[in-house]
Write a structure and sequence with these properties.
Length: 121
């Protein structure tokens, strides 16, 4: 898998999470308003993190970067995406997930590489 494929996979994964949530809006809204919100957010975090760490690892292939730094970068971006999802749910899941994913993709294009280069030895 090349870096582009990994980047596309990350975007597709984020879009899939949002689409599933939108298709199950009533369940999602009820979960967010219940005691199970933490469980749902932990699950969403794990799913998104798996996509983000995949791209971070792929971009870092030709660099020497400590794992703790790669993990931190992935954690940081995952929290940002989780915050976007939280706000989206609070706004009744109205905005088109595709538009949100495109906005994020434009914003972070090249950022993973730039961030990794800051930690590279």
């Amino acid at each position: 898998m090349d870096k582009t494929a990994s980047y596309d996979k990350w975007q597709c994964g984020f879009y899939a999470v949002m689409t599933i949530m939108q298709n199950n809006k009533t369940i999602v809204k009820n979960a967010y308003q219940s005691n199970y919100r933490d469980l749902m957010e932990k699950y969403i975090f794990k799913v998104i993190y798996s996509y983000v760490i995949d791209i971070v690892e792929k971009v870092a292939e030709d660099m020497i970067v400590e794992q703790k730094h790669k993990d931190f970068i992935a954690h940081f971006y995952t929290l940002a995406l989780l915050a976007l999802i939280h706000e989206w749910v609070q706004n009744d899941l109205k905005e088109d997930p595709k538009e949100i994913v495109q906005q994020v993709a434009t914003l972070v294009q090249g950022d993973f590489k730039n961030d990794l280069q800051k930690y590279a030895k």
